[in-house]
Design goal:
The chain is of the alpha+beta class. Helix content is 49%, strand content 19%. The protein contains 14 helices and twelve strands. Helix 5 packs parallel to helix 7.
């Protein structure tokens, strides 16, 4: 449970809160300042409580964290091992919000899996995602939540332009196909003479409906011609999901997601711009620049594709890299060559010190 919590705190909460942490008091409104303070205090409470929780298991790590978080900075108790062990406060648990976020994270996780299966880079924008829930209760969780905000999170996490929730399974069948794979080594001894009939029933069955039944009941019930029933469990039959051309799919306990994988020239141009941002950020790290350091950027390329991305997304590139200017020529003597999808470019960076570099 501790490992699951740390993973969620680090890879979801902290990562999703970066904009709040980095909010400048000079540039932001009062609302954003309040959000920034809330983000820091929430993280602080999580870390202090976690330090108490891990104290019996990793005593020296817990003591180091405690002294950095509490004892030195706030004049708190001398040692974490003198503090009381935390007790759960069920009154502050928001069950509804927890269900919503669990479902949201499953959609994002499945979307990433579909991306990976299709070998699509995370920085390459896609046109959209389609979601089909395994049962009505999951759909109800989604629609009762802040749909607009949740859709924004999915779009941001998966780098997609749109999201559509499908409620009609027939509509979903336009994008995926289901194949039913029985384990006849197990079913043979179990079914005996009924095996040929069950095999025929499986061949004629609706894979999507079987998937929903399996997810809900952990088994499938078939009615045979003699009026009897045959129960098949997950270790006796597999229902495999296969995306149709132009799509990538993944399924989980609560839903199936489908990503549109066809790339338009507009999407490709934006993807190249995001790769340029990555190269500039990596170069900033190599130069040991401060996070807040302003820079001049020079990019030289003979590639028409990269040139188009630079023209179209120049303001975005500059905004995300803290560049005060972006030239299509060298601006410093630290030129480095790179390749994006086979297209060559030369990148140079100079620190902004109030005047333009020669």
């Amino acid at each position: 449970e501790l490992i699951v919590f740390v993973d969620s705190l680090s890879n979801w909460y902290v990562r999703r809160s970066r904009d709040r942490f980095w909010c400048s008091s000079v540039e932001s409104s009062d609302g954003k300042i309040a959000s920034k303070n809330d983000a820091y205090w929430t993280l602080y409470e999580c870390l202090v409580t976690l330090t108490k929780l891990i104290a019996p298991f990793t005593p020296f790590l817990a003591e180091t964290l405690w002294r950095k978080l509490v004892e030195q900075d706030r004049g708190g108790m001398e040692s974490v091992h003198l503090a009381d062990y935390p007790e759960a406060d069920e009154a502050v648990v928001n069950e509804k919000q927890s269900r919503e976020m669990k479902l949201l994270r499953e959609i994002v996780s499945l979307g990433r899996a579909a991306r990976s299966a299709a070998k699509l880079k995370v920085r390459q924008p896609l046109s959209g995602i389609k979601v089909m829930y395994s049962d009505d209760s999951m759909a109800k969780v989604f629609w009762e939540s802040d749909v607009i905000e949740n859709v924004k999170i999915v779009q941001d996490e998966l780098n997609i332009k749109g999201m559509q929730v499908l409620e009609d399974r027939k509509e979903f069948d336009q994008y995926v196909a289901f194949s039913i794979v029985p384990d006849f080594k197990k079913l043979g001894p179990k079914l005996g003479k009924r095996l040929p009939e069950v095999k025929k029933l499986l061949a004629e069955a609706d894979g999507g409906a079987f998937l929903a039944e399996m997810d809900k009941n952990k088994k499938i019930v078939l009615k045979t011609s003699d009026g009897g029933e045959v129960e098949l469990t997950g270790d006796e039959i597999q229902i495999r999901l296969q995306a149709k051309d132009g799509y990538a799919a993944a399924q989980g306990p609560s839903c199936v997601v489908v990503l549109a994988t066809d790339l338009t020239e507009e999407l490709l141009a934006e993807g190249r711009a995001r790769e340029i941002v990555r190269l500039i950020q990596d170069r900033r790290k190599e130069m040991n620049l401060e996070y807040t350091a302003r820079i001049f950027v020079g990019i030289e390329t003979t590639s028409k594709a990269l040139g188009q991305s630079l023209r179209q997304y120049m303001e975005t590139i500059m905004g995300e890299t803290l560049a005060v200017d972006l030239k299509k020529r060298a601006v410093a003597d630290n030129a480095t060559s790179y390749s994006i999808d086979g297209e060559e470019l030369t990148l140079t960076i100079a620190v902004y010190e109030g005047e333009s570099p020669t």
